User: What shape does this take?
Amino acid sequence: MLNVDTHVLLYAVTSGLTAAERRLLGREPWSMSAIVLWEIAKLAQLGRIVVDLDDADVRRVLSRVHVWPLTREIALMSTHLDFAGDPADELIAATSVVHHIPLVTRDRAIRKSKMVPFAAL
Assistant: This one.
């Protein structure tokens, strides 16, 4: 199983994945932190993206993605990471650490982490 961050999920929905990302994501089931859903809704509300969580194609993609709830362990881990990011990124990364699942992200700050398990592209 892979943990996808918000931007990778958005790239998947909008056909913006790289060839390497498509191959990787085609081999494993996907998961995401619950905060990803909030972040997509918020980015759409702010007009930064044009993705509707009620859109049939988006709902079809999301129906195949396991959603990890925010737990006490994830909240605590997010405060002990070896990088600083926005709170959503920290919760997404902490989800990978707590559940021992590789994260798929393009975020350079997160990718510098020695704590977060990453999927090899």
